[in-house]
Amino acid sequence: MTSKTEFKLEEARFFLRHVEHHWRNVPEIDFYLSAFISAARSVTWVMAAEFGTKPGWREWYDKKAPKPAVRALLRGMTNLRNRSVKAHPVRTRTTAKIIVAPEHLTPEVLAFLEDGAKGQVNLEALDPSNTRFVLKQGERVLAPVTLEHAEHHLPEFAGRDAKDVCSEYLAELEALVNECIAKFAA
Fold this sequence. Notes:
4-stranded antiparallel sheet, 4 strands
């Protein structure tokens, strides 16, 4: 039988799978990120409710001081959860690697790309697969493009893809839950 803590951890896994599956879809990825953050952040609360009265659990849990790198991850996730619940919804900043077909590499598009694509640009989907887009600057269409890769960044984790941050956080939670279950689920 699955414990309440394992069930909550599975909920976080569920939402992370959706984050990974919807990497091309904005704002859907932001919605799944928000759900992942809420579910993952509550795993230790459910663990404390489920195992907190077991002999030795509190002492074991209090000794689980994370290493500095993990502490920064935990602090960032806590700040992100607090922000998303109390002040501002999760909204990632997306960077994308696109492919422009040679026939669409006009002098205007080449100049734009060589300039480092400075300025606000948007991708407007051409089909439900979120693979084919129109590259736009304001209302001006620059070229049709194909999305090769996208990363979604959160202010709390500058320069890191949100999917990677969430995967790292989930791995930390899984290790903690597995140890807890092994020690206290008898």
